[in-house]
Target: Hydroxymethylpyrimidine/phosphomethylpyrimidine kinase
Amino acid sequence: MKVYKALTIAGSDSGGGAGIQADLKTFQELGVYGMSALTAVTAQNTLGVQGVYPLEPAAVARQLDSIGEDLTPDAVKTGMLFSSEIIRKVSDGIRRYGWKNLVVDPVMVAKGGSPLLQQEAVRALAQYLLPLALVTTPNIPEAEIIAGMTIAGIDDCKEAARRIAEMGSRYVVVKGGHGAEPGAVTDVLYDGTEFTYIESPRIDTPHTHGTGCTYSAALAAELAKGRTTDEAVKTAKAFIRAAIEDGLGIGSGHGPTNHFAYMRRLRGEGVGDND
Ligand SMILES: Nc1ncnc2c1ncn2[C@@H]1O[C@H](COP(=O)(O)OP(=O)(O)O)[C@@H](O)[C@H]1O
Ligand SMILES: Cc1ncc(COP(=O)(O)O)c(N)n1
Model:
């Protein structure tokens, strides 16, 4: 049996709903062996972020070397990268080992507003990481910052996707969770030529902690298994839709999405005892 392997390069969320923890749970659910290189430790729960402790850039580089010297990921995703120094180490590592199928989730702030990327690091992200990306998955506020424009509707999402593709990302998905459309969420996929709209009903829930991490991890897992980008984007959307629909009301703030939901439904099981 071929073992498909995916690597996440991201921060730790002690609460388990976002970051490395969300990524590894998602890889596991989708049948992919997960590996991780930590960029930062966050002290976090459903109420917010209580502390951010970045790792030394050399510690990030060393983790990538340990993986690269011995293991070959079939896909890689990046999440919280925190600083331009860490971004440089990450892009150096990805280039050194020739890793393909890179999904860049340009994480900038946590849902409560705590910064997870230093402002001056946005340039480094665009300069060093986007040219290596197969797919970049900004939410609307991230797309506004990277593309340098305000987004007020679908046409603006398309323009931002075009600009981000020009920076070197082969595909771009501008995710619609922060959009103003009542009742619906539209993600805009751009392949450098054409746009595809991935729509779903807007789920009314406070339990959306980790949606972006989970979505990009599902995308990377599917790419690791050899799916095309179009197929991977569809499955990632189905995975996150189920995870939000069955969101977990644990903790007293914004609960995490339900990483079990997609596979439980495929197996014909109910939502289980988690909620
Ligand atoms: N309320 C919601 N209902 C349905 N889908 C959602 C909702 N919020 C986010 N999504 C989906 O979750 C994924 C992550 O979107 P988004 O919330 O925009 O990103 P982020 O978590 O990075 O802010 C996207 O595929 C988006 O369509
Ligand atoms: C360590 C870490 N990485 C990323 C996020 C963003 O989470 P979301 O997916 O909700 O945007 C987070 N809250 N913490």
